[in-house]
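Quick one, tokens below. Sequence please?
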């Protein structure tokens, strides 16, 4: 029998897999082993099948069996940005090795792997050698395989890693349903990053949104990632550290700064759901085979850690889900959900823009493996001499606006399908009913530009516009200034009653508040229902009002 190879392996890493190659590899692997099964979970914007590969033993190919067999469900998403192809190639090759060799014998008894090798099939097939072309002067691009790679955006122009809250791309909606069905304990998102000059092979991260609210889970997640980083170094000799860039570009002593805590990013979105999350970013400036190798090493060690500590993984995620539900059942006005991390400023034309700064705790020190300062300043990779820097680690986020979790929200019927897209449960009022509610008066309404959310996509074969060239704005956001007030009022039949005592309860808070930096209002889904001087159409339930008693 011929050896089963990915397109990258077969071409000696001169090419990357097209979507047809991915599907053919999956089908052939499933033909050769009983440990893998192909699962289709939707259709891309341009009509291609969205496919997952489920890998496990004991015939565990459904979420029901995974729960019955008490397995840790690990979902891996690769190629969300289809110029960042290392995850795609590594997921396929590792799935083969776990099933056709002895590598997976001790792992698959504890794990059910749901692997998505090519989440962006339309962007993937828009191959060009000029996509993500290396440009160290602008600190962007990568050392490409000769045949080129796909595009950052989908065929319809969506950035899938900015779409988790608004779900405008069909690919996002398909993945959301798959995620809700499997409800994985661990989610791994595979990327490739450019940016500051350093000497790590891969940087990693997890959710930063609402760390005080999810403190136990975040601590578990961080300790686990540090443990896996050590295993990757010991067993595979790759250097890894937390994701970031220099706070002041070119100055390694200025600090190490992570990315914004907005839940439009998948890692922060899944963090609001109380699940373990892992962001993996191979380094653009190392060569393509090495990027694939370090990604494979990290995936393997993450799987090993989940199998070894399966009981702890199951317990921490179950406990976090129970805490989310408890906040809805017994609302505590002191337990605040951060819903906005933006600092508003004005550009030189007076337009509203936002920054999302991270802060450094006094004892949080980053150990950065990099090069001599002259090499960093000259944007030379690799640098002349390797050295280590100690600097402040900017990865703590402080909300500029926060609210408590109410018992429920009262929501217009028009938002029903959007709530369903996030797996948020609701009931429709069968008859008019009175509630005491906290409402919001809309005092001001403005608009701001959404960077790197969507783009005008070039025809297949042509290169996309690099971010350094500042592509034309495509998507915008509505920003409200509001003032709260409490009242007792009647709501008509058909109004949606959204309880927060559910596993997506914290996510519901973030989506429904008017001053959220990533909610339904911000993404303009309520624009037609909002007027300055009037009430915002979503209300926080304080209590169901009983009928007034007659005066004696």
């Amino acid at each position: 029998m011929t050896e089963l190879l990915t397109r990258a392996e077969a071409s000696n890493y001169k090419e990357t897999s097209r979507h047809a190659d991915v599907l053919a590899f999956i089908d052939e692997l499933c033909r050769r082993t009983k440990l893998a099964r192909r699962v289709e979970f939707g259709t891309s914007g341009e009509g291609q099948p969205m496919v997952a590969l489920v890998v496990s033993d004991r015939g565990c190919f459904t979420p029901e069996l995974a729960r019955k067999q008490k397995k840790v469900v690990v979902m891996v998403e690769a190629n969300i940005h289809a110029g960042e192809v290392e995850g795609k190639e590594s997921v396929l090759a590792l799935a083969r090795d776990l099933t056709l060799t002895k590598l997976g014998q001790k792992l698959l008894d504890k794990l059910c792997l749901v692997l998505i090798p090519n989440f962006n099939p339309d962007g993937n097939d828009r191959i060009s050698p000029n996509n993500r072309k290396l440009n160290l002067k602008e600190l962007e691009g990568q050392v490409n395989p000769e045949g080129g790679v796909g595009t950052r955006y989908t065929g319809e122009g969506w950035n899938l890693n900015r779409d988790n809250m608004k779900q405008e791309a069909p690919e996002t909606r398909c993945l959301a349903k798959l995620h809700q069905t499997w409800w994985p304990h661990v989610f791994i998102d595979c990327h490739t990053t450019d940016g500051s000059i350093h000497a790590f092979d891969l940087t990693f991260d997890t959710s930063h949104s609402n760390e005080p609210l999810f403190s136990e889970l975040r601590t578990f997640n961080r300790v686990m990632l540090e443990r896996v980083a050590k295993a990757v170094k010991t067993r595979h000799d790759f250097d890894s550290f937390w994701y970031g860039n220099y706070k002041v570009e070119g100055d390694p002593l200025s600090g190490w700064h992570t990315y914004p805590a907005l839940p439009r990013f998948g890692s922060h979105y899944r963090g609001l759901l109380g699940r373990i999350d892992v962001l993996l970013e191979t380094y653009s400036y190392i060569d393509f085979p090495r990027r694939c190798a370090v990604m494979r090493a990290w995936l393997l060690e993450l799987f090993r850690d989940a199998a070894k500590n399966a009981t702890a993984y199951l317990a921490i995620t179950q406990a976090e889900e129970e805490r989310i539900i408890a906040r809805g059942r017994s609302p505590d006005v002191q337990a605040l959900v951060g819903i906005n991390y933006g600092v508003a400023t004005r550009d030189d034309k007076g337009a509203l823009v936002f920054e999302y700064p991270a802060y450094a705790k006094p004892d949080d020190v980053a150990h950065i493996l990099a090069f001599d300062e002259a090499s960093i300043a000259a944007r030379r990779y690799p640098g002349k001499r390797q050295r280590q820097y100690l600097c402040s680690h900017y990865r703590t986020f402080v909300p500029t606006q926060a609210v408590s979790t109410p018992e429920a929200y009262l929501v217009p019927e028009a938002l029903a399908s959007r709530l369903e897209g996030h797996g948020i449960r609701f009931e429709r009022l069968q008859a008019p009913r009175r509630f005491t509610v906290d409402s919001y008066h809309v005092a001001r309404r403005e608009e701001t530009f959404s960077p790197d959310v969507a783009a005008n996509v070039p025809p297949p074969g042509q290169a996309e516009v690099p971010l350094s060239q500042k592509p034309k704005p495509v998507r915008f956001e509505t920003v409200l200034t509001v003032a709260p007030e409490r009242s007792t009022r009647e709501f008509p039949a058909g109004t949606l009653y959204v309880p927060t005592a559910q596993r997506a309860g914290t996510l519901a808070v973030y989506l429904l508040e008017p001053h959220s930096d990533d909610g339904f209002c911000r993404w303009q889904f309520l624009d037609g229902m909002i007027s300055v001087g009037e009430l915002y159409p979503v209300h926080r339930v304080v209590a169901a009002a009983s009928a007034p008693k007659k005066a004696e």
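Confidence is low (pLDDT under 50) at residues 547-552. DSSP finds 13 helices and 22 strands in the chain.
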